[in-house]
Amino acid sequence: MNILIINGPNLNLLGVREKSVYGDTSFEAYLEQLRSRYPNIAFSYYQSNVEGEIINKLHEVGFSYDGIVMNAGAYTHTSIAIADAIAAINTPVVEVHISNVYKREEYRQTSLMAKNCKGVIAGFGMESYRLAVESFV
């Protein structure tokens, strides 16, 4: 099984950014835990702060992978283009958020992507990614 994890803007700073919201673990360290827990899954990881690069990656793998776990960061609330890219591909996408976006600012409570995703997982810290992976296995 091939699963791609895509992280959007500012998520390259996990482990050092707003630790009270996002924790103190880097995503790379967490990814190693996922790989250890699911040795039969081939995980790929992609992070970009650029909207168009995220869209290009969705187009690249969206017809060949078994699943995509996506934390689009702030693009979740603003990018019609990423939402359209998700709708255009065959690979199912699970939207994830580390924080509980429904306990935060009002603008974070709207996802333009969710209607095109298999599901949405929010508020379980880094474990949101594992829960998304579980939806594929």
TrEMBL record:
GO terms for molecular function: 3-dehydroquinate dehydratase activity. Keywords: Amino-acid biosynthesis, Aromatic amino acid biosynthesis, Lyase. This is 3-dehydroquinate dehydratase. Substrate binds at N71, H77, D84, I98, S99, R108. Belongs to the type-II 3-dehydroquinase family. The active site is at Y22 (proton acceptor), H97 (proton donor). It is an enzyme of class 4 (lyase). Pfam families: DHquinase_II (PF01220). HAMAP family: AroQ. The record marks R17 as: Transition state stabilizer.
